[in-house]
Amino acid sequence: MANQPQASGRTERSERAVQRPAWPQWLALLVGLVYAVFTVTAIAMGDDATDRFGRQQIMPGLGASWVLTVVHAGTALWGLLAALRRSATKLFGVAIFMAYIGLSAYSVPAVITTTQFELLNVGWGNAALYLITTLAGLAISIGASGGKPFPTEPPRDTDEVM
Asked: Secondary structure of the chain in the HEC alphabet?
């Protein structure tokens, strides 16, 4: 019995590890890339395309302002980083769901009432993008948790942090 080969801990650990779907991480990465493109485009257009309030049109129906550029940059950075860990992906999904449902609730009436003094400079493209991002955040948060609520402690067999 003493001469029997012992299985390495690494093999046992990989067999016991729970496989989670990877699509929420890919969706978080996609959201991060989309907002990175919008952020880079808004910054590349520069001060020449902005009015005195810092508003600019990226394309017809899709506006930007310095506030939206900061929000889009934060979403892009967090989306790119959230693809690295499942726990970060879950938190990203919940956070963008909450943030972009608020932006959606603001942008739809703002587009309907179209005034010159609307400082965020949202258009119908923004409203549609924010609604899609809200749905993506909901899908990411549900998919990354595997349909289970957030645990109070990380599982023993993972590298997740809480």
From this structure: CCCCCCCCHHHHHHHHCCCCCCHHHHHHHHHHHHHHHHHHHHHHHCHHHCCCCCCEEEECCEEECHHHHHHHHHHHHHHHHHCCCHHHHHHHHHHHHHHHHHHHHHHHHHHHHCCCCCCCCCCHHHHHHHHHHHHHHHHHHHHHHCCCCCCCCCCCCCCCCC
